[in-house]
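Today's session is about reading a structure prediction critically. Students often jump straight to the picture, but the first step is always the sequence itself: look for stretches that repeat, for charged clusters, for runs of hydrophobic residues. Only then move on to the predicted structure, which in these notes is written as discrete structure tokens rather than atom positions. Here is the chain we will use throughout the hour.
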Amino acid sequence: MSLSTQEGYGGITHKDQKRVVTLFSDVSSTANPNQVLGQVQSELASTLENLPQGVRYEWTGEQEEQADAIAFLSNAFLIALFLISFILISQFNSVTKPIIVLTSVVMSISGVLYGLVIFQMPFVIIMTGIGIISLAGVVVNNAIVLIDYVDVVKSKYPEKSTYDVLIMAGSTRFRPVVLTAITTTLGLVPLAIGFNIDFFTFTNNPIEFFTNINEYLYWGGEQAAWWSPMAVAVIVGLIFALHLH
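Below is the predicted structure for this chain, in token form.
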């Protein structure tokens, strides 16, 4: 087999009335696309710096899609924090307490990063980002339950010190906060470990399901690879935030 380069007007493509040459390649399913892209960029760095005048390059494809996803999720996260802050300030009539609540959100994000390092999982832009945004809602609820009851105890026992009020509120609200974290965590464990059940066969043909249970009850799969980063992000972030509470 031999390769040769030839000119052909039928092979010229244009974008915005400019000639474009597109180079693309598939990545192995076991490889990390971002890591492969980093290796390609390092190999081509010197060549791209010495391009002829009038020639420019862009990294598109999955890299471009990831950049768009990062921008969208970042804006969604900032909007969510703004709305949460606005509601908390209007309800608590204070700025300090919403800051305390939002601090737990920031610390839960650090818990997500620690969890990904511990489980040696990549930061999947879309699903991990969605996990962080959904995690913010759960963490905020737990913090509101605790801080709101601190105000109740303080108004009920004005003679007690701040330390004693915090101890009383924490011991009373410990159970609902822990139950919320445990139920959320356990509910996401099947997604995190990739546990799959064919409910369609189970409900329509239970005899077939239990006869060939190994076929309809399995671990892993494409869905597990898709949902696992989101579930792990919520689980480790919630556990870390619970420890802070």
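Discussion point for the tutorial: The mean pLDDT is 78.
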